[in-house]
Structure formats: structure tokens, C-alpha cells
UniProtKB/TrEMBL annotation:
Pfam families documented for this protein: PD40
Keyword Signal carried by entry: yes
Keywords, sorted A to Z: Signal
Residues spanning the signal sequence: 1-18
Keyword Signal: yes
Similarity remark: Belongs to the TolB family.
Taxonomic superkingdom: Bacteria
Protein name: PD40 domain-containing protein
Biological source species: Candidatus Limisoma faecipullorum
InterPro entries hit by this protein: 6-blade_b-propeller_TolB-like, WD40
Gene3D superfamilies: TolB, C-terminal domain
Length: 305
């Protein structure tokens, strides 16, 4: 009991509530159809629409913040796990799974937002380590090979993309994949490259999940503090959740933002409900997240430089 009490004191001392470099302007639930429970929202870079999925990560639906229209993108299994939206908002990329001879295989698919057309980027394989999209081109790393499919727009220079291989953090750029492991051997999770392509964000277990930001080659890792499911909020901020569980289900979770240099570690929700899996717009003004009951919230924030 004393250890639990001390742990809570440490967590409380780390958190400042909506002050310093970031301020909550508003936080309201979205009016999805009453029958719809939604989870793991991903907001578009321009903050105009978002993707949501089911509790089982099956399928993707697109919700327009201006009109309230909910549109089914796919019903594929696993599509809701870490779905990506390209920086220009033109392309959705997701991973779907299937079992063959008791082994799980993954495919990567892309969707043209304008037309709804779906194409396969990677056929079923056991070696997908990363996927994403940039300026209408879908990207995926299959083994150590970068695969691409241009959905719209002009040919682009492929950005760095981060993935996990056997628990190691791997960055692929210029067609080459390198294991970087900025904090040494660990179990790396929730990896992503910053929108400007200069930094990589990740989390590792350290008596709870802890987030870091490093250079693309793994140098200069900066500890951000306790944070699960971290996501970039522009290039200067990171948003994630600080959660607790009882071994079976999450019992507490708050949304936390922190600067990419590790300063201004700030709780954005007060703990009165379980708030999870945030996603932020490119301009760092909007955050979406889901509650344990499957309600999606839109939070508007203001940051200072």
C-alpha cells in the first residue's frame, strides 16, 4: 500500500494541470449516432475530420467535424490499429490481418479520400514493420524493403519512417533500414517520425511506459516522462495518456501533453473519466480522444512558444 501511495505522489508531482505552455480552451463530446461506440480516433492533419474504429479495431469510419457525417471507409479486421492519414489529407493507409495455417499475416491497404478507392500496397506477409503516407503516396516497409504506391499527386521524395522489428526501433530512410535503439535494448512501442522528418518519438517500459524523442539516428534521446500511446502534436509538442490498470482493464487514464524537449509536462483532463488514445492536428490546436465508454471528445487547446 505504501508503494502505491508513493507512486501516486510521484505521478501527481509530475503533472501540472492545464497551465504553463498549453491551455485547454474547450473539451466536448462529438455527436456521433447514439448506437455508435467509437475508439482510437485519428484526426486529419488539418483538423477537419477524423477516423474512428470499433473496440475490436475492426473497420474504419470517417467523421466530418463540420457536417457530422459518418462514412464507412472499410470493414477490414485490424484496420483501426494505428491507421495513418497522409500529411495532405488525401490518403488513408491501414493494416489488416488474417490467419493462414494458424499464423497471422498482414496486408497494407490505401484509400483515396476523394474517391474512396482502395488499393493494396503490400499483399499478405508476416514482415510488415511500418507504414504511412505522404502527399498521396502510400508507404510500407516489408522486411527491409520500402514499398510504395502513388494514389494521387506527383512523385515524392520518400520520408523517413519508423517501425518495430522484434522489439527493436528501426528507421527506414533513403531505402535503407537501420536499428537505432536510442535507449539501448528494450521493448520499443508507439514509434513515429515528426512531421518535419527530423525526430523520432517512441515509448519503452520503465516501471510504466515512458516516452522519448531522439534524432533519427538514435542520438540525443530526450526523456519526456511517463506517457503511453504518444503522438506528435506538430513538431514541438507530444500528446499521450498516463494510464493505470488492474491487470485486466484500464482503471484510470488522463490525457497529457509535453513539449518535445521534455518541458511543460501537463495534464489536460482531470481524471474524472477514463480518457485514452489521443491524436492531434498538425497545428497543435485540436486533440481528439476516446473515453472507456466509446465516446469521442474534441479538445481545443492553445500553446505558447
Amino acid at each position: 500500500m505504501r508503494k502505491v501511495f508513493l507512486a501516486m505522489l510521484v505521478l501527481t508531482s509530475q503533472l501540472s494541470f492545464a497551465k504553463g505552455g498549453i491551455e485547454v480552451v474547450s473539451d466536448n463530446p462529438l455527436q456521433l449516432p447514439a448506437s455508435e461506440a467509437a475508439y482510437s480516433p485519428v484526426i486529419s492533419p488539418d483538423g477537419e475530420w477524423l477516423l474512428v474504429t470499433s473496440n475490436a479495431m475492426k473497420g474504419l469510419q470517417k467523421y466530418d467535424l463540420a457536417t457530422g457525417q459518418l462514412e464507412t471507409i472499410t470493414t477490414d479486421n485490424g484496420a483501426g490499429y494505428n491507421a495513418k492519414i497522409s500529411n495532405d489529407g488525401s490518403t488513408i493507409v491501414y493494416r489488416t490481418s488474417e490467419f493462414k495455417n494458424r499464423l497471422r499475416y498482414f496486408s497494407v491497404k490505401s484509400v483515396d479520400v476523394a474517391t474512396g478507392k482502395t488499393e493494396t500496397v503490400v499483399k499478405p506477409t508476416r514482415n510488415v514493420s511500418a507504414f504511412g503516407a505522404v502527399n498521396g503516396t502510400a508507404l510500407a516497409v516489408d522486411g527491409n524493403k520500402m514499398k510504395t504506391k502513388r494514389i494521387s499527386g506527383k512523385k515524392v521524395e520518400y520520408p523517413a519512417i519508423a517501425g518495430i522489428v522484434n522489439g527493436n526501433l528501426v528507421v527506414t530512410r533513403d531505402g535503407k533500414s537501420n536499428t537505432i535503439n536510442p535507449v539501448g535494448k528494450s521493448r520499443y512501442l508507439w514509434q513515429s517520425v515528426s512531421p518535419d522528418g527530423k525526430k523520432v518519438l517512441f515509448a519503452v517500459p520503465e516501471n510504466g511506459m515512458v516516452a522519448y524523442v531522439s534524432n533519427l539516428d538514435g542520438s540525443n534521446p530526450v526523456r519526456l516522462g511517463r506517457l503511453s500511446a504518444p503522438e506528435w502534436m506538430g513538431n514541438d509538442w507530444v500528446v499521450g495518456m498516463v494510464d493505470k490498470d488492474n491487470g485486466e482493464v484500464v482503471t484510470e487514464s488522463v490525457i497529457v501533453a509535453v513539449r518535445a524537449d521534455g518541458s511543460d509536462y501537463t495534464a489536460l483532463t482531470d481524471g474524472s473519466q477514463i480518457c485514452m488514445y489521443p491524436s492531434a492536428s498538425m497545428d497543435a490546436t485540436k486533440i481528439v480522444y476516446n473515453t472507456a465508454e466509446g465516446k469521442i471528445h474534441l479538445m481545443k487547446v492553445k500553446t505558447t512558444k
